[in-house]
Amino acid sequence: MPQTLTVELGPRSYDIHIAKRLGDEIGRVAGQLNLGPACLVVSDSNVDPVYGDGCENSLLREKFSVGRAVVPAGESSKSGEQLFNIYEQAINAGLDRSSFVVALGGGVIGDLAGYAAASFMRGIALIQVPTTLLAMVDSAIGGKTGINLPQGKNLVGAFHQPVSVIADLNTLRTLPLRELRSGLAEVVKYGVIHDEDILTMLEGLEVDKLNSKPESLEEIIMRGCAIKADVVCRDERESGLRAVLNFGHTVGHAIEQATGYGRYLHGEAVSMGMVFASRLSVRLSGMSESEYDRLVRLLDHLGLPVRMPDFSWVDIRKAMEKDKKRAGGSIRFVLAERLGSVKTGIAVSDEDLEEVWNGCR
């Protein structure tokens, strides 16, 4: 039976559906949402050959008119060029203000297609159909959409909540193990910021068997989605509490930007960012050495990187200057008081930042 969580946002509330074979139900779910007859399925060159036809056929069975837009796989597609490509495909598919976009793919597609939906004709409906673990537990929920600029990650975007999220666990069977590991980094983050029990669950996970047994992730995904939904409900536009979700992301985004958005997957960069933030937390906010060691062991157990890349601090510090979380001219960090509890908005000196960077290499 599908499990359902509701993101309670008043008139913008929506359900997150989690189960096996939910991909067959995309059209049925869309049909219950009182949407217009035309839609555009946006996917990438990896996902579309595997799931594009099934998604389209599900929508056709419910009498929707379906267009398809396929972009190259990878972070480089979060660009103005691909955004305008989607606009063109939306026009070709006959979309109007009653139409909707289906984001079929991982975080890149969710962000890109989501921003296209947010901006096309000043905003049309969006259904998120995440096909990666990272997207299921994080990026498909909460309404953050956007594209990158050469100067930094997600510098252009909008808050645009989906009307539904449909997570089909069976799509994880075709996901490369490296992508599964990357998604687990965001789940680790939930354990650090809110629920230490998640870390215990992950410590017992047999990572190498996840492709054949994605159902073993169902409870972990539900717990992660529930935390993300709860935070979003209480702070939709990141005016305060939602900043806790940025744990590990300040340095993680800087690593992605400095290395050209290709060397590391997002979760891999976030893993290194969490090690960095945790080391800062030991120094500045009360996290114990034993908790730090436990976190590093867990990330290593999950097959995620725990040492900073062989990259100069000067370049990483320069990349951090583009971070959206800067305030009053300084970079603000989310740091852990202990596993399961963090505090936000902490200004850190350049001396501490550089010393921790060099100590984590």
Task: Record keyword descriptors for this entry.
361 residues, alpha/beta, Rossmann fold, Dehydroquinate synthase-like, alpha domain, 2 domains, 7-stranded mixed sheet, 3-stranded antiparallel sheet, 12 strands, 43% helix, 20% strand, globular
Model description:
The chain is α/β, with parallel strands linked by helices and 361 residues long. It folds into two domains: 3-173, Rossmann fold, CATH 3.40.50; 177-359, Up-down Bundle (Dehydroquinate synthase-like, alpha domain), CATH 1.20.1090. The chain contains 13 helices and twelve strands. Helix 5 runs parallel beside helix 6. The longest helix is centred in the C-terminal third of the chain and has 19 residues, at 266-284. The model has no long low-confidence stretch (mean pLDDT 93).
Number of helices: 13
CATH top level class name of the largest domain: Mainly Alpha
Arrangement of strands in the largest sheet:
1-2-9-6-5-3-4
Q: How many structural domains can be distinguished in the coordinates? A: 2
Measure the end-to-end span.
46 Å
Mean pLDDT over the full residue set: 93
Q: Write the CATH fold name of the largest domain.
A: Dehydroquinate synthase-like, alpha domain
Main sheet record: 7 strands, mixed
Name given to the CATH homologous superfamily of the largest domain: Dehydroquinate synthase-like - alpha domain
Second rung of CATH, namely the architecture of the largest domain: Up-down Bundle
Quick one: overall form?
A: globular
